[in-house]
């Protein structure tokens, strides 16, 4: 069952949305999506640290104690094996003007079922014409402004499972759903944070693991096509192997051992 908490209270069914809320009107806010296993929010501390940093940089009021009360209320009596926790912080209602301040942000926290078993074990990518702007906050932070990713996903939906997004220099950035890695010999490479990507939580975990030598670098499409394996990571799917890019088959060296390690680490198996 789903549970929703809004500004201090559990709410049932629908509830009124303030018509002047800037999250709704302008995408002015940040969010986090957190995997929940048996009532435990996985890597919650890391998610909230990233959210807090984004909020500070964007001038949003971030109250950790308030958020934790909401998270605890939403997770209370959770009995499902796999769920997803969504924490959404909007600037709230302000006077007109992009730089207007707000002393009362809106905080929405929800918990919903997540069917981990139904998630794809592999994916096909197609390169989007839409570029990630490596100087934009919307590329570096998990903001409510996700229209670039939505448009890119819709652009390639007829031929692929997700879009491969490049940055303004034409280098690999990410997909719409996560960070991208390539395996070459005993080395794993992933685009560095200055390439217009979100600092993924699963990405950071993998970079600290001892599976292979890991390195952040500038990555090209040719690097992906020549790799032994390519995979995409995020907090819900963990690891998904890429089988083709722009309908070109790519290296099929398995990364199942990495996926199993992450599933074990997060309590998914």
Write down the overall geometry: globular
Percentage of β-strand residues: 25-35%
Number of contiguous helices: 8
Mean pLDDT: 93
Helix and strand pattern: EEHEEHHEEEHHEEEEHEHEEEH
List low-pLDDT spans: none
Short description:
The chain is an alpha+beta fold.
Tell me what you see in this structure.
The protein has 269 residues and is of the alpha+beta class. The chain is built from eight helices and 15 strands. The chain has helices spanning 22-26, 44-58, 64-75, 137-140, 147-156, 201-207, 221-225, 256-266; strands at residues 3-6, 9-11, 29-37, 40-41, 82-90, 106-113, 122-127, 162-166, 172-175, 179-184, 187-191, 213-217, 229-234, 238-245, 248-249. Strands 7, 8, 9, 10, 11, 12, 13, 14 and 15 form a nine-stranded mixed β-sheet that branches. The chain has a six-stranded antiparallel β-sheet with strand order 2-1-6-5-3-4. It is globular and about 50 Å long. The model has no long low-confidence stretch (mean pLDDT 93).
Which key phrases capture this entry?
six-stranded antiparallel beta sheet; 269 residues; 26% helix; alpha+beta
SSE order and pairing:
Elements: E1 3-6, E2 9-11, H1 22-26, E3 29-37, E4 40-41, H2 44-58, H3 64-75, E5 82-90, E6 106-113, E7 122-127, H4 137-140, H5 147-156, E8 162-166, E9 172-175, E10 179-184, E11 187-191, H6 201-207, E12 213-217, H7 221-225, E13 229-234, E14 238-245, E15 248-249, H8 256-266
């Amino acid at each position: 069952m789903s549970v929703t908490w809004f500004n201090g209270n559990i709410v049932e069914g629908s509830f009124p949305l303030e018509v002047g809320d800037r999250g709704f009107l302008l995408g002015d806010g940040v969010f986090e999506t957190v995997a929940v296993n048996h009532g435990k929010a996985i890597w919650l501390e890391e998610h909230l640290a990233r959210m807090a940093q984004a909020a500070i940089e964007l001038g949003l009021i971030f109250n950790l104690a308030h958020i934790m009360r909401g998270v605890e209320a939403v997770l209370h009596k959770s009995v499902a094996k796999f769920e997803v926790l969504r924490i959404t912080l909007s600037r709230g209602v302000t006077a007109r003007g992009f730089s207007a301040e707000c002393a009362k942000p809106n905080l929405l926290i929800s918990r919903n079922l997540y069917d981990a078993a139904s998630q794809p074990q592999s994916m096909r990518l197609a390169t989007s014409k839409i570029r990630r702007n490596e100087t934009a906050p919307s590329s570096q932070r998990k903001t409510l402004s996700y229209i670039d990713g939505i448009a890119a996903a819709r652009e390639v939906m007829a031929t692929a499972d997700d879009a491969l997004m490049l940055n303004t220099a034409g280098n690999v950035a990410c997909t719409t759903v996560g960070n991208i890695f390539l395996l070459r010999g005993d080395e794993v490479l992933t685009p560095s944070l200055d390439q217009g990507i979100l600092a993924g939580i699963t990405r950071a975990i993998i970079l600290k693991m001892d599976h292979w030598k890991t390195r952040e670098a500038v990555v090209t499409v040719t690097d992906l096509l020549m790799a032994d394996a390519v995979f995409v990571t995020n907090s819900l799917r963990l690891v998904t192997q890429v089988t083709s890019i722009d309908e070109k088959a790519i290296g099929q060296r398995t990364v199942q051992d990495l996926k199993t390690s992450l599933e074990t680490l997060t309590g998914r198996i």
